[in-house]
Amino acid sequence: MVDIKAAAGELKGLLGLKGEPVAVTFTNDEVEDPGNGKAWVCRALKQAAEGRSFLIDAERSACMGGGWHCGLTEPVSGEARRGLQRFLTRGEKLTASIVSFERMQRLSSPPPTGLSDRMIIAPLERAPLRPDLVVFLCDAEQACRLVWLDTYWDGIPPRVELLGSLCHSAIAYPAVTGNSNLTLGDWTARRMQGFSAETVFFTIPVERLPNLLEAIPHSSAGRAEVEILPEFRHA
Question: Domain locations in the chain?
Fold first, then answer.
């Protein structure tokens, strides 16, 4: 198993990350509450990159959507769902109609309902348990390097899921599918939490992390030098 603390330090140095890589762990175990109170999942991601840790469960989730997108609560139904439809179409105004909202939901991966009792979001170097996901809050160039390192050995293109809430695309989708994902997040989360204009989100399931790290000395997206071979020098 990869030394998580060493991996966090190596990736920060390699990419020049401003913030910490963020560990996300789903667990049913009783774990110590770091005492940072209720939180939106999107805010927890931002503040974990700044060094804080969060324990989020059904009671500690400050956002109804974040709770069910991450599988901590049941998806809403009945009048609560009607309220959500009204909010998204008339309040938040991120989708034009209840039909486009439903289409967006059904054509995306489903939430991991009932996956765990709680979720830990913390700086990777301080993760109290083995993480399930590692989320990088980075710029486009850093994300580009991560994507190429992640695909260096197998060459399989990532199946990116861009649409939906930040907690869906950065956490739930990689957790459910095992796919790495690159997302811009959603406009509401970006605006409310004050993410910088250059921030994008790259998430890798932790079981893919060893191959990414192993690629660093071999890939020009890591530390390998680009070589101009003799047969190409004339160009």
Answer: 4-75+111-215
